[in-house]
Amino acid sequence: MKTGSFNELLPYLDRYMALGTAMSIMDWDANTAAPEEASEYTAKVLGILSQERFCTLINPSVKEIMGRIDEESLSDKEKAIFKKLKKEYEKSETIPADEMREFGELCSRANRVWQKAKQENDFSIYAPYLKKLIAYKKKFATYAKKGEEKLYDILLDEYEETFGMKELDRFFGKLKAEIIPLLKRISEAEEIDDSFFYQDYEIEKQKEWNHFLAEYMGFDFKRGVIAESEHPFTTSWHNHDVRITTHYYKNNLTSAILSTIHEGGHALYEQGVDDSLTQTMVGEGASCAMHESQSRFYENSLGRSEEFWVPLYPKLVETFPKQLMDVPLEKFVCALNKVKADFIRTEADELTYCLHIMVRYEMEKLMIEEDTPVEELPELWKQKYKEYLGIVPENDTQGILQDVHWSMGDIGYFPSYALGNAFAAQIYNTMKKDLPVEELLRQGKISVITEYLREHIHQYGASKEPRQLLKDLTGEEFNPDYYIQYLKEKFEKVYHL
Ligand code: ZN
């Protein structure tokens, strides 16, 4: 007879949540307001908090209570939390504490060296660190390995549960077959003129406009804040305090607009989590990919459509008359969808984005499954860019050194970005059957669309798994064909192919 009650876990779970919130407030501060020289000292505080947080959850008392709890007697919400808790336990028990600490230290050093390597365009100083990071990740995966499992599958599972190489190979295989030929046809088509995006756009006016845009999208300023940072991001402490950042460039109108819409999409998700779940282990987005599905849906499916801009564009022209007076709406939207194979993932257009991810997926497979020596990676990177995007990076700064992820020990993360796009397309396909999406956008009723997403996805936080959310909403299993179909239809139209 099991005598434990879920309530016995609550003091531990609350403390875990509170320490996590404190850490993310400091992280927010470090990225938006903290002075330049604070980082090393603040890192010490974060290290201590992180250790405290870990021990709050992973300790004999919690384990003893868990052992006394009868899972069958739990509510659905409690079951979901219990499952997360068990996963944290499994992870912590497979990796020895001293190795975990060493790995943490390695990551923070590797990150600093990566920044220097990127700045100086010198892969060789970063290579020994990347080699060590790969070795640690492989060792950790070996600890967790059951039976015939592949190591890279174990790493992938950390970021997007149950989406392994078998499914991803099929997914990227389809992208390769359909999108690379499409990109080739586009590169032969007439180039779209987007030069008017790069005139002088006064920053103060941009700020005002982006504030208005976030409000229009439904971002709740009573429960959220917008600030500025070098790289835009979203952080959520609970559903009543969700923060996004954007970055303004004087000679680029759309960079801030698109990141406001993107981060706004993440924020609507977090603000939409139900009150009963927030501040629990399942009180946030369901997964990396599901989160990205929401941000990309707002950014690309809505934010780059003509219908979205029908109610907004006149106000944008009013704000920047000199620059946009002679640019009709159709031309503006067409320029938003310009495709150009380029080197940098974070600046990629909607079509080529997935190819950038495919390169990284294949590189990670080489690193983990094929034991490819790190010295060979920069050249392989260049070859893949040539093969898939038709361009060769001139140096490693615009090649293999561009992303921060590996230097932070995140190997296996990238595919979730591409999966997010595919989730978004599948969701959109169903949404269009349920709602007159284009009509709603024209009428400025974007709130109806957000309400739909809230009802089917946002409110559940992580209490339902991504596959379940997709199935409950669309009536079928994950199906990447919708994404490929969406891209083909959209870009054949944009480029009149
Ligand atoms: Zn995002």
What's a concise summary of this model?
With 497 residues, the protein is mainly alpha-helical. It has 22 helices and 3 strands. The mean pLDDT is 96.
Structure in words:
The chain is mainly alpha-helical and 497 residues long. 63% of the residues lie in helices and 3% in strands. It is built from 22 helices and three strands. It has helices at residues 10-32, 39-57, 60-68, 76-94, 97-120, 123-144, 151-159, 165-188, 203-217, 253-271, 288-302, 306-309, 313-319, 321-324, 329-336, 353-369, 377-389, 415-434, 437-442, 446-456, 466-474, 481-494; strands spanning 224-228, 234-238, 241-246. 35% of the residues are buried. Zinc ion is lined by residues 262, 266, 292, 295.
List the helices and strands and how they pair.
Layout: H1 10-32, H2 39-57, H3 60-68, H4 76-94, H5 97-120, H6 123-144, H7 151-159, H8 165-188, H9 203-217, E1 224-228, E2 234-238, E3 241-246, H10 253-271, H11 288-302, H12 306-309, H13 313-319, H14 321-324, H15 329-336, H16 353-369, H17 377-389, H18 415-434, H19 437-442, H20 446-456, H21 466-474, H22 481-494
Parallel strand pairs: 1-3
Antiparallel strand pairs: 2-3
This protein binds zinc ion.
